[in-house]
Amino acid sequence: MLTPAQQDQYQTQGFIVLPGFKRADEVAALRARALAIVDAFDAGRHHSVFSTQDQARRSSDEVFMASAEGIECFFEEEAFDAQGRLRQHQRLSINKIGHAMHDLDPVFEAFSHGPALAELATDLGLQQVQLWQSMYIFKQPAIGGEVKWHQDASFLDTTPTSVTGFWFALEDATRDNGCLWVQPGGHRSPLRERFERVPEAQGGGTRMLALDTTPWPDARAPGTDAVPVEVAAGALVAFHGLLPHWSAPNRSAQSRHAYTLHATDGRAHYAAHNWLQRGRLPLRGFD
Ligand code: FE2
Questions:
Q1: Of 101, 114, 151, 193, which sits most exposed with the smallest number of CB within 10 A?
Q2: Other Cβ atoms closer than 10 A to 199
Q3: All structural domains of the chain
Q4: What pTM did the predictor assign?
């Protein structure tokens, strides 16, 4: 599916943009399904999650961990006012849905599998695709949060590194509404940090461990080597697990919905310290 030139670009730049990868009707179906999930989500059940109390933090951790094999909605940090009430409609307050819709929801399942994705994964060097997580990201108007510079390999660690991101634009992504930014070639830089489970004996939960001090790019600095990836709805951006990427807060009136899938290669060893582990749900590839 990829031309030799495209494969070469992926090797040297660490990412590739494939405009029109999904049809408009496929995008519309996924968007409609995501809104239905949000509408069915009982926010009251989770209000305590956003309190700073220890007990609440523990229950928040549990909700997060359980989402590895479930379908959970997470609010934007700025969704609530000082009284704990939503500032805008619930549909405009959710940061993301995660993390197993691709296995559990028929509409997401259809969007997340098929020969086109299987072929692309092969072209990107993944021989035994293991699809660990799906995220529907809303990047809401006005309150859409920044996603700080990171590498996806921090969250899905394998030896050797194999995690690959598949980022689908469900709306036009522009600099105004918080498109993805990447550092071309940055996939050859070291892994900066690792998000890992803390053993129960040390208090449990999760932590971010610093590994390397190589600085992140600064998209706002003059002469930056970071580039915006402005794409139209339907485009797929595939990128290497070590590629540094970032997205700005969305202060515009336009949302920027996107859907991501993260896959590793079954030939690589999947770390036991990764937050995301599968128990009851079997792992599938793109087939
Ligand atoms: Fe990411």
A1: 114
A2: 9
A3: 7-267 (2.60.120.620)
A4: 0.94
